[in-house]
Design a protein that fits this description.
The protein has 12 helices and 11 strands. It is an alpha/beta fold and 314 residues long. It folds into 2 domains: 4-100, Winged helix-like DNA-binding domain superfamily/Winged helix DNA-binding domain (Arc Repressor Mutant, subunit A, Orthogonal Bundle); 105-308, D-Maltodextrin-Binding Protein, domain 2 (3-Layer(aba) Sandwich), CATH 3.40.190. Strands 3, 4, 5, 6, 9, 10 and 11 form a 7-stranded mixed beta sheet that branches. A two-stranded antiparallel ribbon has the order 1-2. Strand 3, helix 6 and strand 4 (134-141) form a beta-alpha-beta unit.
Length: 314
């Protein structure tokens, strides 16, 4: 059954204001008009006028006199309790907006190629758990070209990548951050893992797992081998999937070129299971950088997380 309060429309359409809510919340706590008036910063006559307006708006008494104080009616008590909750929500909204403006809350979308994802993004996210506990993030790990497309589509705030091929460089701002050295890795127990000295010819006696044709890492490896006067390595599998590469390494005698950051992580610690071969053929993928759309302005939260990423030593 509808009450009188609901019959004539919403309280706000009938004139209920924030000042009314503040007074009712104070009355619910003090049960004294004078004390409630002082709490909200108005005079007692002004509080009495506001209380009269409230009762006119709800169409029922909100209080009764009781000695030197007042007692809220059931309707007044309902409004006072709800007023406390409404004011608490408004206060929370103010704090949340303030934090968002200072970059202390919000959602960030970033991307990274594999090495920087481990060397910079991962430690930055660990630091953000303490420094920015109310900032959440989506992270896309992919080659530079797809990351550039995601930036152009507005689906990333920034990326640790290289300028995408086939795209106009002036579409992006790029701040150089560092090169990405590459190691050769095998499974534990591999024959080459037991050797102190390895020659390039030794490497070419085994299958290699290379990234897909057209990828930067594959091109870097093949161009460097050619510069050393070596033929392309034998290989039955080409893939850009790290999980498939890892499985192939662990279940065969294959060799794979991986970014140093990946090699170090999977050659030590609880994830151990790869061995870095003691040979340096000079594989270095060209420098990557922090990439954004040209002229784009990051949100405060994205700026904060970007600063944490840049603060990592790599």
């Amino acid at each position: 059954m509808q009450t009188t309060v609901n019959a004539n429309g919403s309280l706000f359409r009938r004139g209920l204001k924030l000042a009314h809510l503040r007074l009712m919340a104070a009355l619910g706590e003090t049960c004294a008009i004078g004390v409630a008036a002082a709490r909200v910063g108005i005079t007692q006559p002004a509080a009495s006028r506001l209380l009269g307006e409230i009762e006119e708006i709800i169409g029922r008494p909100a209080h009764t006199r009781a000695g030197r104080g007042i007692v809220l009616t059931p309707e007044g008590d309902i409004l006072a309790r709800r007023a406390v909750r409404a004011l608490a929500e408004l206060g929370a909204a103010e704090r949340e907006m303030s934090e968002m403006g200072r970059g202390l809350s919000g959602h960030v979308r970033l991307g990274a190629v594999t090495g920087p994802a481990l060397d910079r993004v991962l430690p930055a996210l660990r630091a953000a758990r303490v420094a920015l506990p109310n900032v959440t993030a989506d992270v896309v790990v992919a080659p530079s070209d797809p990351l550039g497309d995601l930036l152009l589509a507005g689906r990333l705030d920034f990326a640790l990548a290289r300028l995408p091929e086939g795209r106009e460089p002036t579409l992006f701002d790029l701040t150089a951050m560092g090169e990405e050295p590459v190691s050769l890795v095998v499974r534990p127990g591999h024959a080459l893992a037991r050797r102190a000295v390895i020659t390039p010819e030794d490497l070419l006696a085994y299958d290699w797992v290379l990234p897909e044709p057209g990828t930067l890492l594959r091109r870097t490896v093949l161009e460097r081998l050619a510069a050393l006067g070596l033929p392309p390595p034998p290989g039955r599998l080409s893939t850009s999937s790290f999980l498939l590469t890892l499985a192939m390494l662990r279940e065969s005698n294959a060799i794979a070129p991986l970014a140093d950051a990946v090699s170090r992580r999977f050659a030590s610690g609880p994830e151990g299971g790869l061995v870095v071969l003691p040979i340096d053929l000079g594989f270095v993928v060209p420098a990557y950088g922090l990439m954004t759309l040209r002229g784009a302005r990051l949100t405060p939260a994205a700026e904060r997380l970007r600063d944490l990423v840049q603060a990592q030593t790599g």
